[in-house]
Amino acid sequence: MKLVKECQARKVQNSDKCEVLEYPLGDEEIDMAIANLKGRYPDSGYCVNQECIVRLQCLARLLGIKNNIN
Questions:
Q1: Residues whose CB falls within 8 Å of the CB of residue 56, separated by 6 or more in sequence, listed in order
Q2: pTM metric for this prediction
Q3: What is the CA 48 to chain-centroid distance, rounded?
Q4: What pLDDT digit, counting tens, does each position of 11-56 carry?
Q5: In 1-70, where does DSSP find H-type helix?
Protein backbone atom coordinates (compact mmCIF):
# COMPACT_ATOMS: atom_id res chain seq x y z
CA MET A 1 0.00 0.00 0.00
CA LYS A 2 1.22 3.48 -0.86
CA LEU A 3 0.34 6.80 0.76
CA VAL A 4 -0.45 9.62 -1.63
CA LYS A 5 -1.16 12.98 -0.03
CA GLU A 6 -3.75 15.40 -1.33
CA CYS A 7 -1.02 17.95 -2.11
CA GLN A 8 0.43 15.42 -4.60
CA ALA A 9 -2.79 15.26 -6.61
CA ARG A 10 -2.85 16.74 -10.09
CA LYS A 11 -5.99 18.55 -11.26
CA VAL A 12 -6.98 17.78 -14.85
CA GLN A 13 -9.82 19.55 -16.68
CA ASN A 14 -11.01 17.10 -19.37
CA SER A 15 -13.86 19.39 -20.43
CA ASP A 16 -16.13 22.03 -18.92
CA LYS A 17 -18.17 19.13 -17.47
CA CYS A 18 -15.38 16.82 -16.25
CA GLU A 19 -12.69 17.61 -13.68
CA VAL A 20 -10.36 14.93 -12.34
CA LEU A 21 -7.97 14.75 -9.42
CA GLU A 22 -5.24 12.25 -10.31
CA TYR A 23 -3.19 10.69 -7.53
CA PRO A 24 0.11 9.24 -8.82
CA LEU A 25 1.03 5.91 -7.27
CA GLY A 26 4.40 5.64 -8.98
CA ASP A 27 3.30 2.53 -10.85
CA GLU A 28 3.42 2.42 -14.64
CA GLU A 29 0.15 0.47 -14.88
CA ILE A 30 -2.09 2.03 -12.24
CA ASP A 31 -3.03 5.40 -10.72
CA MET A 32 -5.99 6.54 -8.70
CA ALA A 33 -8.37 9.34 -9.64
CA ILE A 34 -11.53 11.02 -8.44
CA ALA A 35 -13.73 12.40 -11.23
CA ASN A 36 -16.31 15.12 -10.77
CA LEU A 37 -18.89 15.05 -13.58
CA LYS A 38 -21.34 17.89 -14.10
CA GLY A 39 -23.70 16.65 -16.76
CA ARG A 40 -22.93 14.41 -19.73
CA TYR A 41 -19.34 13.45 -20.53
CA PRO A 42 -18.25 13.37 -23.27
CA ASP A 43 -20.67 15.73 -24.99
CA SER A 44 -21.38 13.13 -27.67
CA GLY A 45 -20.41 9.55 -28.32
CA TYR A 46 -18.71 7.64 -25.51
CA CYS A 47 -15.42 7.32 -23.64
CA VAL A 48 -13.72 4.05 -22.69
CA ASN A 49 -10.32 2.84 -21.52
CA GLN A 50 -8.68 0.63 -24.13
CA GLU A 51 -7.00 -1.52 -21.47
CA CYS A 52 -7.83 -2.04 -17.81
CA ILE A 53 -5.72 -3.87 -15.21
CA VAL A 54 -7.78 -3.12 -12.08
CA ARG A 55 -11.08 -1.35 -11.75
CA LEU A 56 -12.44 -0.02 -8.47
CA GLN A 57 -15.51 2.13 -8.17
CA CYS A 58 -16.81 3.70 -5.01
CA LEU A 59 -19.36 6.26 -4.00
CA ALA A 60 -17.40 9.08 -2.38
CA ARG A 61 -20.38 10.41 -0.44
CA LEU A 62 -21.20 6.98 0.97
CA LEU A 63 -17.61 6.61 2.19
CA GLY A 64 -17.35 10.19 3.41
CA ILE A 65 -14.56 11.13 0.97
CA LYS A 66 -14.46 14.84 0.26
CA ASN A 67 -13.92 15.90 -3.34
CA ASN A 68 -11.76 19.03 -3.25
CA ILE A 69 -11.83 19.73 -6.98
CA ASN A 70 -14.02 22.82 -6.71
A1: none
A2: 0.62
A3: 14
A4: 999 899 999 999 888 887 777 888 888 889 888 998 887 777 766 6
A5: 60-63
